[in-house]
Amino acid sequence: MTRAKVWAARRGLRGWGGVTGMAVACAVTASLTLLPLAHGDGTFGGQTTGQGVTSAVPAKAEACTDPEASLLPSTADGPAIEKIRARGKLIAGVDQNSFRWGYRDPESDTLEGFDIDLVRAIAKDILGDPDAVIFRAIPTNQRITALEHDKVDVVVRTMTINCKRLEQVSFSTAYFQAGQQVLAPKESRITGYDKSLAGKRVCTAEGSTAFEALEKQSYGAVFEDEHDGTERDRDQLTVPNQLDCLVRLQLGEVDAVVTDNALAAGQAAQDPAVELKGDKPFTTEYYGVAAKLGADDLVARVNQVLVDYRRGGADSPWMRSYQNWLAAGLPGIKGPPAPKYRSN
Fold first, then answer.
1. DSSP H or E stretch at residue 17
2. Which residue, among 233, 196, 186, has the nearest Cα to 218 in the 3D structure?
3. Alpha carbon separation from 132 to 113, 198, 304 (Å, rounded)
4. Which residues contact 142 (CB under 8 A, 6 or more apart)?
5. DSSP line for 53-79
6. Alpha-carbon distance 70 to 36, whole Å?
């Protein structure tokens, strides 16, 4: 039996019937608008950047010393909030393929997960109804573009806050702490983010912090497609969606995946043949809710939602969602990260 066939026989997702089964279960339905995947320049259908409800001058990268610091919480309305209210729906960019974070339950055909719970909390606060949401599934490499082109109001999709991204979008305070880690077959000799990656084929999602980490220190790993963005490129190593890496790993097309440990834990839970390598993540990262650059009223409102979401200790909405979705794969977390706010 070939290696690919061995993996195909072993790759059954618990409760899903395999990656292929999950892909079918995650098919687009009438309640979910799937954004078109643009390749190359990252635009949607050749559109130019649309006009936002507010505007701002991007902060210089060198001025960013504490990227997790966000605006003070507020319930005040502004242009972005008024636009959402006039529409009667919050448009949220999410994932539909990340187990336990944002995925479509094959039995109920509803989007569920930790990120989805937070989206519903935002909708309830602004519109009074947790179901007043239009979910739009967006790939990893289109999160920023979706905001820039006014395709979504917010992105809640395991998106790491960092200085580079703050030049393009605005972020709420952090709602989850994660870090990059290596995912590989249990039988692999790869031991983590170290010299054991030398000569190994490593897959990452395009536009991810995992790819940026490998650009800085690859340990000799092969992680870039030679003709990325051309017709000859199969996107084997750098892929639009993080789940694509798991499929390639299971087919034996790559040797390892570098991704957030929070996402990798969900993938390891789906497939008992893979595991996280290394004792702990090699980075510390924080997820935030992203909004269009300059949508300060919306960011401040989300920060107020997060204040309420964290409140209550072990019985807070945050902890209830964590216990429901993440505790099995990421045990021992006592609570959300403390918020940081800018002084001006």
1. none
2. 196
3. 17, 49, 19
4. 35, 37, 38, 42, 44, 240
5. SS--PPPPGGG-S-TTEEPPP-----H
6. 31
Report residue 226 as tokens.
């030679």
**What CATH number should be reported for the domain whose range is 3-23+180-277?**
3.40.190.10
Selected from 3.40.50.2000, 3.40.50.410, 3.30.450.20, 3.40.190.10, the CATH number assigned to the domain covering 61-177+286-330 reads 3.40.190.10
Residue from 282, 302, 335 nearest 126 by CA = 302
Half-sphere exposure of residue 255: CA atoms within 13 angstroms, side-chain side: 16
**Tens-level pLDDT at each residue, the chain (344 residues):** 444 433 443 334 333 334 434 433 333 333 333 333 232 333 333 333 333 333 333 444 457 899 999 999 999 999 999 999 999 999 999 999 899 999 999 899 899 999 999 999 999 999 999 999 999 999 988 999 999 999 999 999 999 999 999 999 999 999 999 999 999 999 999 999 999 999 999 999 888 889 999 999 999 999 987 655 555 556 689 888 888 898 999 999 999 999 999 988 888 888 889 999 998 999 999 999 999 999 999 999 999 999 999 999 999 999 999 999 999 989 999 999 999 999 86
**What are the structural domain ranges in the chain?**
3-23+180-277, 61-177+286-330
Contact 232, 166 (CB under 8 A): no
For 242, the 3-state DSSP assignment is helix
Asked whether this chain's domains 3-23+180-277 and 61-177+286-330 adopt the same fold, the reply is yes
Which residue type, as a one-letter code, is found at position 274? V
| Beta-sheet pairing, 285-292 with 97-98 | unpaired
Alpha carbons 38 and 42: distance in angstroms, whole number? 5
Enter the pTM of the model: 0.78
**Backbone dihedral angles phi then psi of residue 53, each to the nearest 5 degrees:** -75, -20
**Cβ atoms of residues 183 and 264 within 8 Å:** yes
